[in-house]
Amino acid sequence: MAPAASKADVAEYLGQAGSIPVRLRQLPPHIRCGAMTDDPHGTDPRRQVPRTDTLLADPRLAAAGDRLGRDLVKAAIGRVQQRVRDGEVPPASAVDAVVDELPATAASLRPVLNATGVLVHTNLGRAPLSPAAVAAVVAASGTTDVELDLGTGRRGPRGEAAIAALLEAVPAAEAALVVNNCAAALALVATALGQGRELVLARGELVEIGDGFRIPELLQTTGARLREVGTTNRVTLADYRDALGPDTGAVLKVHPSNFVVRGFTRVVEVAELAGALDGIPLVADVGSGLLRPSPLLPDEPDLQTTLAAGADLVLASGDKLLGGPQAGLVLGRAELVQRLRRHPLYRALRVDKTTLAALEATLRGPVPPVRELLAADVDGLRARARALAGRLGDAGVEAVAVDADSRVGGGGAPEHPLPGAAVALAASFAEPLRRGRHPVVGYVEDGRTLLNLRSVPPAADDALVTAVLEVARRWT
Ligand SMILES: *Cc1c(COP(=O)(O)O)cnc(C)c1O
């Protein structure tokens, strides 16, 4: 910004001027900014920046201070004062402007509408919780009976109800344990069963999950030795048998969730392997968290079937297809689960009360959004897309309904595109929609912005229209 001219500068300039009003208008803007004579009644907003304590005393901002903390409100006030100084906000509207600036919560994570068509999007926080799970989180977030038996007044088992819900959903499991995420479950298993020993794993299952997270590297950091068997494309039962010995801690199967190998391939299924291990634990990481088989995703392994086929332990994520909070689920034989629970590392990986609450409510409550959206039929999605395009068209925004495939995401079902529908807008919408007050993340394809409805809960359709119209309004 140009420095404001001093009064002396202006007086000197005016001294040379014949007709003051005319000459003033010809002054360069930075000189006009400092010119008192241009603002004889003191209406220049830059001279009337409301004071911080005056603003803080406004009832709306005082209430916001109670809700968000004074520091966040003061920061918003500071930004608005600058905008008043810059002449962007009239001083009389400062309070309104601060209210507009205030974040919705004291955390900066913002709700985002996921219109990517990727159901479980890791960058967007994976599974959205069901309203029942959100309510359970809120209820549990104060002091709660997570480890106290209110009947006896004694210490009780932590997370018992969530575990019971898991065991009911997966009857093939004798016991269950919940940790922070599936990576934590793998780390715990590798430490408790494999430290200083060997973990047998097929070369075709040395998986990188995403963002550089490589399962073999994680396993090795626990002090387990990896004993790789087979080749990239083929492994046989004999390969596994040859690798077993007194040093074997466990045999691991990892679901290659985000890729497929086709052609001359062979894998050894859990049922075949389980019969050949002579009591060595067989641990299967199925990743996606499907509890039971899903006809919608025929290639995706599930916990119940994998245990019934003979796995001793199964591991999965809570926030993928299960549709719950971030968590690592470990289910299987009671003796092994107990060993994991007693291991000192478990204490470092256990989940908090809000996760336990959300998990239980996801398992016992209504179908969570991920599974509802997974089951949404194409005709329904097309009808929604047509209705939304119609509403936008009526409001003067060019929009059409188009067919668009979507994906499970989160490393699940890579070969299984889900048919669906999207609203197509001009490509120029993508960025302002993402940066808007109510961010919407779509994607650009063939020169258009697509808002894919497979990942948008129907209850959010109105919010989607509002967000698009807000962007369009700013352009007109
Ligand atoms: C996603 C995935 C993981 C990692 O799960 P997080 O819950 O993100 O730690 C591990 N294994 C498999 C097979 C997966 O698909």
UniProtKB/TrEMBL annotation:
Q: Which Pfam families match?
A: Se-cys_synth_N, SelA
Residues annotated as domain L-seryl-tRNA selenium transferase N-terminal: 46-85
Q: Name any one GO molecular function.
A: L-seryl-tRNA(Sec) selenium transferase activity
What UniProt keywords apply to this chain's record, in alphabetical order? Cytoplasm, Protein biosynthesis, Pyridoxal phosphate, Selenium, Transferase
Q: Which GO terms describe its cellular component?
A: cytoplasm
The cofactor required is: pyridoxal 5'-phosphate
Metabolic or biological pathway, per its Swiss-Prot or TrEMBL entry:
Aminoacyl-tRNA biosynthesis; selenocysteinyl-tRNA(Sec) biosynthesis; selenocysteinyl-tRNA(Sec) from L-seryl-tRNA(Sec) (bacterial route): step 1/1
Instruction: Give one GO biological process term.
Output: selenocysteine incorporation
Listed EC numbers: 2.9.1.1
| Residue numbers of N6-(pyridoxal phosphate)lysine PTMs | 320
Q: Which reaction does it catalyse?
A: L-seryl-tRNA(Sec) + selenophosphate + H(+) = L-selenocysteinyl-tRNA(Sec) + phosphate
Q: What class of enzyme is it?
A: transferase
Q: Which domain of life is it from?
A: Bacteria
**Which InterPro entries does UniProt cross-reference here?**
PyrdxlP-dep_Trfase, PyrdxlP-dep_Trfase_major, SelA-like, SelA_trans, SelA_trans_N_dom
Record flagged with keyword Protease: no
Q: What is its main location?
A: cytoplasm
Where is the protein localized?
A: Cytoplasm
Presence of the UniProt keyword Transferase in the record: yes
Q: Which residues form a coiled coil?
A: none
Which NCBIfam families does the annotation name? Answer: selA (TIGR00474)
Entry's family note: Belongs to the SelA family.
What this chain does, per the record? Converts seryl-tRNA(Sec) to selenocysteinyl-tRNA(Sec) required for selenoprotein biosynthesis.
Name the record gives this protein: L-seryl-tRNA(Sec) selenium transferase
